[in-house]
Write a structure and sequence with these properties.
By secondary structure, the protein is an alpha+beta fold. Among the domains are: 70-171, Alpha-Beta Complex (Dipeptide-binding Protein, domain 1), CATH 3.90.76; 270-482, Dipeptide-binding Protein, domain 3 (Roll), CATH 3.10.105. The chain has helices at residues 2-30, 58-67, 116-129, 162-165, 228-236, 248-255, 285-294, 297-304, 327-330, 336-345, 369-382, 394-402, 421-428, 441-452, 456-473; strands at 38-43, 72-74, 81-83, 86-91, 97-102, 140-147, 150-155, 191-197, 201-206, 219-224, 242-244, 260-265, 270-275, 309-311, 357-361, 387-391, 408-413, 476-482, 484-489, 492-493, 509-510. The protein is globular, with a radius of gyration of 27 Å.
Length: 511
Amino acid sequence: MAPKRVTVIIAVVIAIAIIVAIAISFTKLFVPPQGERILIVGTTYDPKTLDPALSYDIASSIVIQNVYDTLIGYKPGTAELAPKLAERWESNENATVWTFYLRRNVKFHDGSELTADIVKYSIERAKQLQGPPAFLLDVIDRVEVVDRYTVRFVLKYPFSPFPSLAAFTIFSPVPLNATNLEEKPIGTGPFKLDTWKKGEQIVLVANKNYWRGPPKVDKVIIRIYPDPSTLRVALEKGEVDIALGIQPQDIEPLSKNPNIKMVSIEGVVIEWLGMNLRKEPFNNTLFRKAVNYAIDYNYILNVVLRGTAKRLYGPLPPAVFGYDPEVERYGYNYNPELAKKLLAEAGYPEGKGLRELELIISSAERAERKDVAAIIQRNLKEIGVNVRIVDLDWPSFLDRLFNHNFDMYMVDWFPDYVDPDDWIVPLFASYGLNLDGYNNTQVDGLALKARQTADLQVRAALYKQLQKTIVDDAPWIFLYVPKLYAFMQKNVEGFVLYPVYYIDFYPVEKR
């Protein structure tokens, strides 16, 4: 009898186990899965390209910075360098040879591994493509593969800021033989591109195999809004989690909104009005000085920008090494009578003989630019200079700017690397980006000497001389240094602003 009872008990236990298993499975079928963690970012910035070898605008960089990694990164909220794809780096005594030691087991989104060969290929590819930022690589003579995870950069001359340069997006490695990276990027970064509807939105999905661990959100949706007013409404309605590109007049009311969180930082971005020195009347120094004295800078800062920016007197922002406070004494201030006098000396008394000048802007990139441009237009009309404003979408603006198809333009400069070299060489040396056609052999020589000098005191003296020379030549109207802002919902945590406007979604989460 005992064996039968044991058999019955075993059968009952098995039956109960089966019933429990079925119940658990049934329950799982009807319990909804945990929802996707989605971060929605609103912006007015419309990317131009997602290829790090070709990108040279903030809208494109926001995406590239999250899809790719550079060799070197920044400590959170600062411009202080930190390891990224390179665990460490070193140079020889005169800063002409830089060696980077790569992390191991870093994978691209396509599964291929990051190696020194790929870093070498990526840099040589960027130099060959000759996109807008390619001039930054001119300092490199050659790239050498030391071993599988060690890469060496041999420079044409000593260049102490090279590690800072290696934090810029053009130093983002790309896989061998990748095609159409402009629209289908493949990086090592925390997010992968899912979809891109140009002018509408970009969808990024988490890279679960990211070398630092997966991001805290599963998906980032970057929605592109036609103007900042629409973006503000979307933020207040809770339709976006983070808003980038809020206009100055909305900053104060949003900062008082109990449902919205604001972060801000003193930046090193500069805004200026450039002129095409390749043609009349801008090839006349007296005319350019007249324009500089015609602008009511205080009205722009206090009324239009409502205290959200500081005055820019010369080529360098105040927070950068090498800035000379004396520029605030000899720089240009509002003086319409002197402007009229200089205009007459330039050969255009009361504006006679001048054609109507065109000023191109993109308020889509910075909304306040439209109002600032209107004040400049009014100020110049008061001395006899007629200006027509043309407001373009961001990609069209960049096309005209890089093709030198303008009389005047307004734009900002987000530094590639935080060193005075990155303001002087790209913007004022004839061998740099050279947007304006400015050509001063003294500036070229001093800039080259400054970038090759390691001694900080010597460098500071050279940059002091450069600032004085450039301001005296008046190739620009030096406008202002905007403060950087971002607004978000109360449940967003982990978002940090950087002085260089590096936008990092990796640590961001929603609680």
